Amino acid sequence: MSDGLFYVVGAVLVWFMQAGFAMVETGFTRAKNAGNIIMKNLMDFCLGTIVFVLLGFGLLYGTDALGGLIGIPNLLIFSDFVTPEIAQDFFFNLVFCATTATIVSGAMAERTKFLSYCIYSLVISAIVYPIEAHWVWGGGWLTNTIFGASYVDFAGSSLIHMVGGIASFIGAFILGPRWGKYLDKEGKPTLVRKEVKYVRAIPGHNLTVGALGVFILWFCWYGFNGAATGTVDQLAQVLVTTTIATATSTCATMIFTWIKNKKPDVSMTLNGSLAGLVAITAGCANVDPIGAFFIGLVAGVLVVVAVEVIDKKIHVDDPVGAIAVHGANGLWGTIAVGLFSSATVCEANGLTAQDGLFYGGGFNLLGVQLIGILCIAAWTILCMIGLFLLLKKTVGLRAAKIEEIEGLDKHEHGLPSAYADFVAAPLAAEMLDPEGVGSAETAGVTVVDATAPATKESSVAGAKLSKVVILTKQSKFEDLKEALGAIGVTGLTATQVLGCGVQKGASEYYRGVKVDIDLLPKVKVEVVVSKVPVADVIAAARKALYTGHIGDGKIFVYDVEDVVRVRTGETGYDALQDED
Hints:
By secondary structure, the chain is an alpha+beta fold. It folds into two domains: 3-413, Ammonium transporter fold, CATH 1.10.3430.10; 455-575, Alpha-Beta Plaits (2-Layer Sandwich), CATH 3.30.70. It is 54% helix and 8% strand. It is built from 19 helices and ten strands. The protein has helices at 3-27, 34-61, 76-79, 84-107, 114-137, 157-175, 207-226, 232-261, 266-281, 289-313, 322-340, 343-348, 364-393, 401-406, 408-413, 429-432, 477-486, 534-545, 572-575; strands at residues 64-65, 70-71, 182-183, 198-199, 466-472, 493-499, 506-510, 513-517, 520-529, 554-559. The strands form four sheets. A four-stranded antiparallel sheet has the order 6-9-5-10, with helices on one face. The protein has a two-stranded antiparallel ribbon with strand order 1-2. The chain has a two-stranded antiparallel ribbon with strand order 3-4. Helix 2 (34-61) runs parallel beside helix 5, helix 6 (157-175) packs antiparallel against helix 11 and helix 7 runs antiparallel to helix 8.
């Protein structure tokens, strides 16, 4: 495979990261906003493509102006389209640009106007990313030697992820938290940070979808970090360091949350994988496996600390952890190059040989990295504060309270639910009875007139009818069902419910925030009996459910006035009997 071909194939993998980001954001947020999030991840790439063609690509790769601060805008993608390098560079940088824009979506999810999202996504793709990326990847001023060293960001820890994380923080800060995320001293929802007394966890609706997104992103990251490599050997080295850092970060997050919260946090561990990917991105071609290990180790702990500080101390609501994953670890990964860069690895990969502080290179490279970080951050902060404040004053940034509570899917897109099978809809007459009501005998069962009154008297006059309702743990349902069947109970109704008894729920942690689960998952089993004594039902249920611990359940007994079998019209005792 030629270098040019892998360059383009790697860019295709980076494009598919849009799917990964969409799944992560959807899974870590609530179902009522799933369609809105999918729409945003689709449109930030499509809208970004248009402005990147017209302006962004020229600002990034145009001829230097103002001392390397900016490229001169051009339309080379049209005039020199047949030049292979132009098309390759355009597509490669387009997909990286889209990644920068889509990071912001997760931090501002569930309460941002769709129009405002489209506008700021356009500005990031047209101006913010192209100008700062020109400084490093377009031949701008940060490619110059400063203090005897050159700025290093091989695949974008600072140029993409830190920029996306900073934009996310500013946007989420100005936008404000989701309604009900933060509570005041009286336990009422508040949007004012200084009034916050309690932090409420808002779990995502589909952790499986979120995990799928992380796996997609990890897979595609091999293209993200590896596409710009010049040889197969360099590609292999980049893939190794990327994998070591990510695996280490994931393990570090799992262990850290396990020690801290007494249980390993699933969603935070998924964030740990992304944190490792982000952190190794800047130095993936400059560090050895030992350096990659320590970069991942710090990233795995840093993401947990950053998420909790941002949420519980600064009170900035970030539903998916984008600020911690991309902002904090993009910063850390860029600094880490100045600590762990290996001249030996650089020379082997055809890069400028530079040793970091821990490899005997002194503070030169670290100093250059810090200068670059400060300048890139300053540019991003200036642009994004101005942009978000302008949007807030003009078209508006935040959706109305009723829109947020009922879901952006409904109000922004006219979508009742992104999960159509869960939408209540009236059944058509032909679905209810495709053959015609009472038209024939079906499967040997006589169809009778359902409109006739149920006047057939029970053959056992005065038989007592009793309803027994059993509430217990879900794990005990099969044991209970077998026990009831063994004593002759021929029918039951089971419902998944939420409830609590004397134990008043339990406490768990979600993304570092304590969650008091007042209502626990239970199963409610209802049976109506006449022939089978109620005492036998109670005895069988107690025997099946008993463990001796709080939470075994409760049994309630009610008198029933009558029972009617719909098909035959039988009532009372007869209606409860098995016809066989």
